[in-house]
């Protein structure tokens, strides 16, 4: 299969995934819970929510910059470049990765996402062992892991993350990936619309830079609820080990990272193929 045919096949896969996103497959319990959650969110004063959203956005911006400039991330960037050079010796920087076939880029991204899913599995299992300190670090640790995984996927498809546009794009991908399935389609369409409007001019970001909203608050509430469930099950010991809470914590965090990395992978695949088609 030649490259153009393979890219078309990937776009067809993404279209089928988009169709699945439009289907609301929530159970009656999930619908009832969502209605209850929306009602509770509506009871919070708007001014209080706005202050919280601004602080959350600022925290995400700072955390993104910290991860990007960390030694761990720089080492990971070098590893990606070394792997890419083994496939094409002409590659010198991250932007050159777009010269590789889409399947090779997918392979590089899959290596990184597999690592982060494993990290998330282990981190969730450790959280499930109990303890106030471990529970208190669960949400920050998950945020760091998932933001970093999106940055890695971005670089694997040839998009450097050290400019304002790429930073905002990766944060918007992160925000969209946290949404429940029945809300992701709208966020996905917004992401596609932005890259279509930019027409390949990616450096300064001129769009809406507000990320957090009521759905973000709802996500945090659900994460706190998960920690509450873990605290209940950590008392149920099997051979002296809180096996049930470990399995719940590991499974929940793994599924979240899988959801994040799946959407990120599809977005950067779509973006790269879309840009190549516009350049011809």
From TrEMBL:
Look up the domain of life of the source.
Bacteria
Please name the InterPro entries in this protein's record.
EcsC (IPR024787)
Q: What is this protein called?
A: ABC transporter substrate-binding protein
